[in-house]
Structure to design on (252 residues):
């Protein structure tokens, strides 16, 4: 009975955690540059006063993200960029640290700062500033050129270069804000990866989410069914306990 209860209880909790991850992936099917979260489960013995050999819980873990390439769609918009191969774009997080993203639907704020989802895009010397009203173009190596408002193409000037990096496989970890970070240094502060001169991007295009809607829906149905199964086991365990108490009361 004890084994049945703890197995079913931890299994149901694990299914709920997995459902949360699958739901988050499914809600980001149309998010530019999104990387699907992966989920796994491992068994962990119950600690403390309740420690018994029969009490083992299933714990959900997120071992990482799916870094496979998403579909690239050409938009024709000047400020849309899609990173090629394993390249990532550097952006400044809210705490001022350097983080990385594949989301390339860029914007220019009222101060002329180039942004990716409200966060400054990093260049060689920090956030990139664009002249107000300028006509902007972005090269394959991330170089940003601008033609000031009211002048001809002969006034084309380079205003910055997007920092592109190519991290090693598995080097980046996802933060709670959805941005990816390099391994922290000895002080626990996320490090900054060196710029990759060979990294390329495609201007006028966006990379879509690498989440498969069909796979996500199948996973959601599978997790829901496993949750129902665990709850049925709990109900059966409760019925068995009541029958056992009834038999004991008769014998008493």
């Amino acid at each position: 009975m004890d084994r049945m209860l703890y197995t079913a209880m931890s299994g149901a909790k694990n299914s709920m955690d997995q459902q949360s991850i699958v739901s988050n992936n499914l809600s980001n099917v149309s998010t530019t540059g999104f990387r699907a979260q992966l989920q796994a489960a491992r068994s962990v013995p119950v600690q403390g006063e309740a420690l018994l050999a029969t009490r083992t819980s299933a714990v959900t873990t997120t071992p990482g993200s799916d870094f496979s390439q998403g579909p690239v769609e050409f938009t024709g918009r000047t400020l849309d960029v899609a990173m090629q191969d394993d390249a990532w774009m550097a952006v400044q997080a809210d705490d001022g640290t350097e983080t990385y993203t594949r989301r390339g639907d860029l914007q220019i704020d009222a101060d002329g700062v180039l942004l990716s989802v409200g966060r400054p895009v990093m260049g060689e010397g920090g956030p990139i500033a664009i002249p107000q009203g300028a006509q902007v173009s972005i090269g394959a190596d991330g170089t940003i050129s601008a033609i000031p408002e009211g002048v001809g193409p002969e006034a084309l000037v380079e205003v910055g270069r997007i920092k592109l990096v190519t991290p090693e496989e598995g080097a980046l970890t996802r933060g709670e804000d959805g941005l990816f970070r390099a391994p922290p240094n000895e002080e626990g502060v996320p490090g900054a990866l060196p710029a990759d001169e060979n990294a390329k991007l495609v201007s006028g295009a966006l990379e879509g989410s690498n989440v498969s809607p069909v796979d996500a829906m199948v996973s959601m149905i599978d997790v829901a069914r496993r949750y129902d199964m665990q709850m049925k086991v709990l109900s059966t365990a409760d019925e068995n306990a009541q029958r056992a108490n009834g038999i004991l009361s008769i014998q008493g």
